[in-house]
């Protein structure tokens, strides 16, 4: 993919990769070129910027070419790197899970604000846990809390457990493969969920990184995008402890519809937090 040869400079590789990525309409081509070359060389993007005249070793050239080809095929950058930052955590990712997104940090903020006692021994449940990002972010901020993450995909539950171990949180987290809360008993002080909420017919029109490479089970919310919310709303009255709160991620424009579903299930809306783009993102619910 690259015309650059082993022994040429970091700067030459970055220049060519940036041009190729820009021509393919990849956003932030210069940054992505640094990430790809850093991945191939085992260096940080900052190191590459500091040493543009450094030579790219032969063993890194093939890795760089493969990574660049994958990105041009619109494989998500997180899948190429194998990692994604979320909150204060470094998380492994895989095609079995949705890639954690900054918008979802709004749920963590809303949960911590709703349950401000940092020493409280909270019982936390994360439905559709994926990488475990929501649960693990809350556990990192609430050292007396214990949490359970559930995902329909066994590979996702296994990845979340590995992320808990890697971030020093395994002693306070357990992960299960199951259908929402069907296998659970007991009540929780906090229930988190980023459910699938894309309308089935809209998935094909999403950006190719999402439509081609992220799991349909984590995206497809049914014909109206609300199937998962119906299941979760029906389960929440039996899951929330007295004084407990649920925080659900919303898709754009879904607030009113999900609030109606919650009300019909006997739940009370406690508020809604917008993400950095001003979109209603984190809906807070309590038992009626």
TrEMBL record:
Domain of life according to the entry: Bacteria
Domain Methyltransferase small: 112-202
Group of enzyme by EC: transferase
Keywords of the record: Methyltransferase, S-adenosyl-L-methionine, Transferase
GO biological process, one term: methylation
Binding site for substrate: 194-197
PROSITE patterns (UniProt xref): N6_MTASE
Listed InterPro entries: DNA_methylase_N6_adenine_CS, HemK-like, N5-glutamine_MTase, PrmC_N, RF_methyltr_PrmC, SAM-dependent_MTases_sf, Small_mtfrase_dom
EC identifiers of the protein: 2.1.1.297
Pfam family, any one: PrmC_N
Chain positions recorded as S-adenosyl-L-methionine binding sites: 128-132, 151, 180, 194
Release factor glutamine methyltransferase N-terminal domain: residues covered: 16-82
Gene3D superfamilies per the UniProt record, alphabetical: DNA helicase RuvA subunit, C-terminal domain, Vaccinia Virus protein VP39
Reaction(s) catalysed (UniProt annotation): L-glutaminyl-[peptide chain release factor] + S-adenosyl-L-methionine = N(5)-methyl-L-glutaminyl-[peptide chain release factor] + S-adenosyl-L-homocysteine + H(+)
Gene Ontology MF terms in the entry: peptide chain release factor N(5)-glutamine methyltransferase activity
Annotated family: Belongs to the protein N5-glutamine methyltransferase family. PrmC subfamily.
Protein task: Methylates the class 1 translation termination release factors RF1/PrfA and RF2/PrfB on the glutamine residue of the universally conserved GGQ motif.
Record protein name field: Release factor glutamine methyltransferase
The organism's taxonomic lineage, starting at the top: Bacteria, Pseudomonadati, Pseudomonadota, Alphaproteobacteria, Acetobacterales
């Amino acid at each position: 993919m690259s015309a650059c040869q082993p022994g040429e400079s970091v700067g030459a590789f970055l220049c060519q990769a940036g041009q190729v990525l820009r021509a393919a309409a990849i956003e932030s081509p210069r940054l992505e070129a640094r990430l790809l070359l850093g991945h191939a060389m085992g260096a940080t993007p900052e190191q590459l910027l500091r040493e543009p005249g450094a030579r790219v070793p032969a063993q890194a050239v093939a890795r760089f070419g493969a990574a660049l080809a994958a990105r041009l095929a619109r494989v998500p950058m997180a899948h190429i790197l194998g990692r994604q930052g979320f909150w204060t955590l470094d998380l492994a990712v895989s095609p079995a899970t949705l890639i954690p997104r900054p918008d979802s940090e709004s749920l963590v903020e809303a949960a911590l604000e709703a349950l401000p006692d940092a020493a409280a021994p909270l019982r936390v449940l994360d439905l559709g846990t994926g990488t475990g990002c929501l649960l693990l972010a809350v556990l990192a901020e609430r050292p007396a809390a214990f949490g359970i993450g559930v995902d329909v995909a066994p590979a996702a539950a296994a990845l979340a457990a590995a992320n808990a171990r890697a971030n020093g949180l395994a002693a306070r987290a357990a992960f299960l493969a199951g259908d929402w809360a069907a296998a659970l008993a007991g009540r929780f002080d906090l229930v988190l969920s980023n459910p699938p909420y894309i309308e089935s017919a809209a998935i094909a029109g999403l950006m190719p990184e999402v439509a081609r490479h992220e799991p349909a089970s984590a995206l497809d919310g049914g014909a109206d995008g609300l199937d998962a919310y119906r299941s979760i709303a029906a389960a929440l009255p039996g899951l929330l402890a007295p004084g407990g709160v649920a925080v659900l991620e919303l898709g754009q424009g879904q607030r009113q519809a999900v609030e109606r579903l919650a009300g019909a299930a006997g739940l009370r809306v406690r508020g809604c937090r917008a993400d950095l783009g001003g979109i209603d993102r984190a809906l807070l619910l309590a038992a009626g």
